[in-house]
Each structure stands twice: as structure tokens, then as C-alpha cells.
């Protein structure tokens, strides 16, 4: 199988992170011929700029993949494409991948990914398993939701790692907004809060009731084509309300409760029918019940981490599924 992976190697500062580890696994597999396409090189709807990846890939070599001379390929020369680029996606990125998907197979279809990134998609799919949620670009609606819950979280769609997630509350006649990257800022009016969240693009935001037990951790459940591979809990070492590993989170193996299994079983079909197969379900604790906060479809991590935590061959399991999936007649049915 000719496998094309897309990522930005420079952002992975440790060889134990998911992307470097899975690259090495794919490179060493006897049934895979691995190619790398730089994230910034996705700029032609008909051509792929890529480099072959050496089988004995070391971490220093992984970091230098973007610097190697590239050759030009047709998307049809690859059997499968695995996108490992982190959001935010630049303008036109998914559209170009959508053109590629007319000629080759993706683990997660980029055309469906555009639909999945709409701010109201998650609520349509998983509303019974989520905390109170509102998607709006209207200040009055947002303010009414804030008044109802007093402390809320606002989420941007084209972001990851907690960068586009903001906690909003009121204290001492000030509105306060906290973000793991930009820190805490105070505003005298709610309209200023919304302006800060929007920046130059007044797009709809997902507003969610803040869960008081959020510091219990953020549970990631890794799901591939409806099968649960395992779960781990990310928890802030300092008790911060964002539990991402990219902030200050530690990881520990976690169980998947029957309620979480039921939530996955009720929602995963909507992703499968859109050819979105590698998923990261995130659950947060709400008064004794773990509720869905995100269902991630982009560069979902967890395969290598689960392998480390469980001692089980998780990457082999993923690879075997990928090899079978690459034989699908999906393109002929499109």
C-alpha cells in the first residue's frame, strides 16, 4: 500500500508524540510504502508534492522531512491518505484535499470534514449526550445564554489543543475571558467579549454551559470505524480548567463506561456514513455523568499514547484496519 501522510513535523517537540511514532511505525511496516507531504505544500488540486520516507526513520530524520527535495505525484498514485495536520486549516486547504479525494481514498473524507467543521454539526449529531449548548452569531442570543448559565465556554471550530476555547464569567462588574494561550482579559460589556472572540470574522460560535467538574479531567476515547480502541484521561497538573496535554496535562489510562459506549454507538454511524473513520471522542464530567464535549475528526491523537499506556499493539491494530480499508471499492461508488 502506498500511504501518504500530511503533517508539519516541526511542531512535534518529542519523539514520543503520536505523529512521529506512527510515522515510524508505518515506515517500518513491510506492506506500506510511506510518503510525506508537507502541510504547507497542499496547494495544487491536481498534484501532490511529496517525499518517500526511509524505512528506518529516526526522530531527527522525521523533523527534517519538510526540507527534503520533493517529487510530483498524482493523487491517484496513492492508495490511502492520512491527514495529520493540526487546525487551524488555511483557506482552501480542505477544498484542495476534496479535489484529491476524487482520485484517492482518505481515512477521513475532506469534503465531509468541511461539513463536520460547521459549528452546529456536533449538536445535531450528539445533542442528547452533551451539556446545554447554543450555536449563534447573535450577541443577544449569546448574552441570554450567558445570563442563564452565568459561566460558559465559547468554542471556535477551526482550532485545536484548547487554543480556540474560552471560559467566560462575570465578577466585580467585569466580564472575564480566559484562554490557555492568550491568558485572562476583562471587559466592561458583553459586546466587547463577543468582539474579542470573533476578531475579524464574526462567525457562529459554539457556546456551552461550563461544567463545574471539568477539573476531573478530559477523557479521550479513540474510535476507528466504530470500534473503541481505548481511552485515557488528560488532567491538568495545576487544576486548570483546560486539560490538554499541550497545556499542562498528564495522561492516565481510563475505562470507557457503559454510558459512554452507548453515546458512541448512537453517534458514530453519522460519521461512518460520511466516510469519517478515525475519531477522538472527548468527554467531560458533569455531576457524575461524563458528557461529550467534542468529537474530533482532524489530526486525532492517541494511538501511540494508548499503546504506551496499555502495552498493547494499538498501532498494529490501526495499520491492519488501514490495509483492509485501502481495498474498499469506495471510489468506484462515489
Write a brief caption for the model.
With 334 residues, the chain is α+β, with helices and mostly antiparallel strands. It has helices at 18-28, 59-63, 93-100, 110-116, 121-126, 139-149, 190-198, 258-272, 303-310, 314-325, 330-333, and strands at 2-7, 33-38, 48-52, 71-73, 80-83, 133-136, 152-155, 165-171, 174-179, 183-187, 205-209, 218-224, 227-236, 249-254, 278-286, 289-296. It has 3 domains: 2-106, Rossmann fold; 132-209, ATP-grasp fold, A domain (Dna Ligase, domain 1, 2-Layer Sandwich), CATH 3.30.1490; 213-321, D-amino Acid Aminotransferase, Chain A, domain 1 (2-Layer Sandwich), CATH 3.30.470.20.
Verbal overview:
The relative contact order is 0.14. The protein has 334 residues and is an alpha+beta fold. It has helices spanning 18-28, 59-63, 93-100, 110-116, 121-126, 139-149, 190-198, 258-272, 303-310, 314-325, 330-333, and strands spanning 2-7, 33-38, 48-52, 71-73, 80-83, 133-136, 152-155, 165-171, 174-179, 183-187, 205-209, 218-224, 227-236, 249-254, 278-286, 289-296. Helix 3 (93-100) runs antiparallel to helix 4. The chain has a six-stranded antiparallel sheet with strand order 6-11-7-8-9-10, covered by helices on one side. It contains eleven helices and 16 strands. The chain is globular and about 60 Å long. Strand 8 and strand 9 form a beta hairpin. It has three domains: 2-106, Rossmann fold (3-Layer(aba) Sandwich), CATH 3.40.50; 132-209, Dna Ligase, domain 1, CATH 3.30.1490.20; 213-321, ATP-grasp fold, B domain (D-amino Acid Aminotransferase, Chain A, domain 1), CATH 3.30.470.
Amino acid at each position: 500500500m502506498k500511504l501518504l501522510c500530511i503533517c508539519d513535523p516541526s511542531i512535534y517537540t518529542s519523539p514520543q508524540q503520536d505523529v512521529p511514532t506512527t510515522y515510524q511505525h508505518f515506515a517500518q511496516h513491510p506492506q506500506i510504502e510511506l510518503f510525506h507531504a508537507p502541510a504547507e505544500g497542499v496547494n495544487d488540486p491536481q498534484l501532490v508534492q511529496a517525499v518517500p520516507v526511509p524505512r528506518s526513520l529516526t526522530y531527527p530524520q522525521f523533523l527534517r522531512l519538510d526540507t527534503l527535495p520533493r517529487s510530483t505525484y498524482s493523487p491517484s498514485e496513492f492508495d490511502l491518505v492520512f491527514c495529520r495536520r493540526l487546525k487551524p486549516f488555511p483557506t482552501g486547504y480542505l477544498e484542495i484535499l476534496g479535489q484529491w479525494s476524487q482520485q484517492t481514498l482518505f481515512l477521513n473524507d475532506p469534503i465531509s470534514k468541511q461539513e463536520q467543521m460547521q459549528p452546529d454539526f456536533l449538536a445535531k449529531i450528539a445533542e442528547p449526550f452533551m451539556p446545554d449548548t447554543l450555536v449563534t452569531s447573535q450577541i443577544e442570543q449569546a448574552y441570554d445564554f450567558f445570563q442563564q448559565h452565568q459561566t460558559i465556554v465559547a468554542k471556535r471550530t477551526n482550532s485545536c489543543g484548547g487554543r480556540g476555547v474560552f471560559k467566560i464569567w462575570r465578577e466585580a462588574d467585569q466580564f472575564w475571558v480566559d484562554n490557555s494561550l492568550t491568558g485572562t482579559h476583562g471587559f466592561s460589556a458583553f459586546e466587547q467579549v463577543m468582539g474579542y472572540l470573533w476578531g475579524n470574522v464574526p462567525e457562529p460560535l459554539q457556546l456551552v454551559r461550563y461544567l463545574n467538574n471539568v477539573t476531573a479531567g478530559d477523557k479521550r476515547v479513540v474510535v476507528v470505524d466504530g470500534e473503541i480502541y481505548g481511552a485515557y484521561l488528560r488532567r491538568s497538573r495545576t487544576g486548570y480548567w483546560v486539560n490538554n496535554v499541550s497545556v499542562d496535562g498528564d495522561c492516565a489510562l481510563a475505562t470507557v463506561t457503559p454510558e459512554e459506549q452507548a453515546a458512541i454507538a448512537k453517534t458514530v454511524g453519522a460519521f461512518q456514513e460520511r466516510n469519517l473513520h478515525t475519531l477522538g471522542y472527548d468527554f467531560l464530567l458533569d455531576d457524575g455523568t461524563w458528557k461529550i464535549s467534542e468529537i474530533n475528526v482532524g489530526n486525532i491523537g492517541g494511538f501511540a499514547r494508548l499503546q504506551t499506556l496499555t502495552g498493547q499493539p494499538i498501532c498494529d491494530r490501526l495499520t491492519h484496519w488501514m490495509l483492509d480499508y485501502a481495498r474498499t471499492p469506495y471510489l468506484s461508488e462515489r
